[in-house]
Structure formats: structure tokens, C-alpha cells
Design a protein that fits this description.
Elements (H helix, E strand, L loop, with lengths): L1 H12 L11 H18 L1 H4 L2 H33 L4 H6 L4 H11 L7 H13 L4 H14 L1 H10 L4 H25 L19 H33 L2 H7 L3 H15 L6 H7 L5 H13 L2 H11 L1 H26 L1
Helix pairs in contact: 4-7, 4-11, 6-8, 6-10, 7-8, 7-16, 8-10, 8-15, 9-10, 9-14, 10-15, 10-17, 11-16, 13-15, 14-15, 15-17, 16-17
Keywords: Cell membrane, Membrane, Transmembrane, Transmembrane helix
Protein name: Permease
Family: Belongs to the UPF0718 family.
Amino acid sequence: MRAAGEAEISELLAGRPTRRRGPGSGDLLGVGVLVAVVGHFAAPGLLSSPALLAWSTVFVAVCLQALPFLALGVLLSAAISTLVPASFFTWVLPRHPALAVPVAGAAGVVLPGCECASVPVAGSLVGRGVPQAAALAFLLAAPAINPVVLVATAVAFPGQPELVGARFAASLLVAVLMGWLWTAFARPGWLRVPRVPAPDPSGNRGDAFRRAVQHDLVHAGGFLVVGGLTAATLNTLVPRTWLETVAGSAVLSVLVLAALAVVLAICSEADAFVAASLTSFSLTSRLVFLVVGPAVDVKLIALQAGTFGRGFALRFAPATLLVAVAVALGVGEVLL
């Protein structure tokens, strides 16, 4: 199965037509449109029900919010894959993985994007030979410590600069710890190395860049839709009154906001404003929400599974969630 997938990617990047092995994303989109049209005439009241309207609103919001940053990530990924020589990364990063992890994590401050952008970029880094742990540290740090996110957090929490500092410190620490944990405990085969486009024999890097963008955008976009569907479904099922009930419990408030950060899948540029609106929760529990969200949510898990393999996502996401909650609680106790 994997060999067949890699062969198809190679054919696509080489400009050759691929053999159809099953329904594609266009086919599924066509089926979805057909079902919506038939449903509109067969049961007109169903499509206008408040629950379905709320679900569709959340789904469209999640996808539209993430799509520009996903496109940015795909463009950067294609640039890294086709325009940047592999020797550049060996020159920039320290040779020892334990030292490369904090350097790569700190480099996340220069990418003004969300988690959707960081996944394809991290995939290109791994494909170009960057140590896996360093690429994963960048993946976790970039959505949470870049200037756009920090400024948005400061605007959402005016007069509380300590929360901005706590978010920066906790998010960077999570990224570095997860990189070091991956260095210490990861086994061969846990992460599927993304295939990097081969150099164009004609030397036309523009065509290679275009083909890489085309492939990555279709591939990652499909998993973004899966994550958006999951986020919309879970978002509409969580009663708002239930949140107010659990806010009074220190333990439950942390667990609930961590779970909401995972299922709501809010872009890291916007999550601070959601956290600021949860005034009944403590600052520490809201810090947990801000640290967990950019590190692990349903759309990010879907994107990671599509880029690095389902086995990777099943191992990496739960471990990241535990580390993020623990680190956010510790930093919150010290700084908030």
C-alpha cells in the first residue's frame, strides 16, 4: 500500500498521469454535492434546521480560517523541497539531535502561521534529512510562539502581559520536551518520512515547485476537511451550560478546557479571543487551553496522520497532550 502510494506521488511529481486506484477527492466532493441537492428537494426542512445550520457554520469557519495558513505552509514546504539545497539544513542546525531540538523550536518564532502551516513545513524538513525530533519541535513551536500569535494574545488579554509570557514559555518548553522525548524513545518506523520531490532533470525548478504545491495542497487539504468535519460535529454537541457548571472545579476546568482545545480546533491566531471570553475559568486553566490547542487538535491530528502516518499520530498526539497539560499547569503556577 505504501509503495503504491509513493509510486503514485513519484509519477505525479514527474508530470506523468497516475492510474486511478479508487475514488478521489473530486469524486467524494461530487457525491457530497449530489447528496446536498437531493436532500434539499427531498427534505427541505432538514437542511434549514438550527442544528445543521450551526454545524455547517462551524465547519466552514474552521476550514476558511485554516485554509490561508495551510496554503502558506504548502508554499513554504514546496520552497523547502525544491528550492533550498539540503546542505543548508546541515549547516544551520547543530549536528547533535539534542542540541538541534531547542534551535529548531526557537526558529518557530519567525513563521507567522498556525498549526496547519507548520505540518507541511515540518514534513519537508524531515524529507530533506533534518532530524525528526528537530522538525517536530518546530512543528509544535511555530504555531504558538510566532509574533502574530503573541500579539493577538496581548490584545485579547489587555493589561496581563504575564499571560503572554506564560504562553510563550510553556509552548516553547512543550516543543523542546517533545523533541527530546522523541529523540530518546522513538523507534524506526514510527514516523513515515514524507517523500521529497526529486530534482527536475531539465533543471526547471519553477515546474517542480508548481507540481509540489499542487500535490501537497490536495493531499493536506483533504485531511483539513476531515478535521473540520470532526471539529464541527463535536463543537455543536458540547452544551454551553455544561461549561459554566465545571468552571468552579480546579481539576475539571483544566480537563474540560484541554478537551475543548482539542475538539474545537481553533486557529492559533484566534484562540486567545475565545479563551478571553471564558471569564468564569481561571487564568491557569485558560493557559492550558492556549497551550494545548496549537499542539494537538482534531484537524492537526488529521494533518499529522496524512503527512507522517496514522501510527505516528496515534503515538504523538496523546503524548503531546499530556506534556502540554502538565507544562501549562507548572508554568501557570509559577507565572500566573
